[in-house]
Amino acid sequence: MYQELTSDNLAEFVGEGKTTFVQYSAGWCGNCRLIKPTFQRLAGETENAQFLMVDAEKFPKSREMAEVKNLPTFAAFKAGKFVGQVSTNKVDKLTSFIHETTGN
């Protein structure tokens, strides 16, 4: 499942306990736009996980749930807890992060 958040409610999705991957981005971020199709593709290929896009500038509470210092940043949550993140615009690093987190 892939979804772009329209309100600052990431905590609700993470609280469901599902494995959750989040792309933190911003409208001005060119690298965020470039890697977004890869994130969406991985969402379609990854079972039992939800993939969410969060605008890091519009949604500060959601941003605070991870240690976002650069964009794009990808964070993972499992069982309602933050488990890791990677700041990258490289397809191989993002793919590896998702596979390592899901154990696939």
Task: Indicate the radius of gyration in whole angstroms.
Answer: 12 Å
Helical fraction equals 25-40%
Strand content: 25-35%
The assigned structural class equals alpha/beta
Element-by-element helix/strand order: EHEHEHEEH
Mean pLDDT: 96
Q: How many domain regions?
A: 1
Q: Output the strand order for the largest sheet.
A: 1-3-2-4-5
Envelope shape: globular
Key traits:
4 helices; 29% strand; five-stranded mixed sheet; 104 residues; single chain; Glutaredoxin; 36% helix; alpha/beta
Show the helix and strand layout.
Elements: E1 2-4, H1 10-14, E2 19-25, H2 30-45, E3 49-55, H3 60-63, E4 73-78, E5 81-87, H4 91-102
Parallel strand pairs: 1-3, 2-3
Antiparallel strand pairs: 2-4, 4-5
General description of the model:
The protein has 104 residues and is of the alpha/beta class. It has one domain: Glutaredoxin, CATH 3.40.30.10. It has helices at residues 10-14, 30-45, 60-63, 91-102, and strands at 2-4, 19-25, 49-55, 73-78, 81-87. It has a five-stranded mixed beta sheet with strand order 1-3-2-4-5. A hairpin with a 2-residue loop joins strand 4 (73-78) and strand 5. Helix 2 (30-45) packs parallel to helix 4. The longest helix has 16 residues, at 30-45.
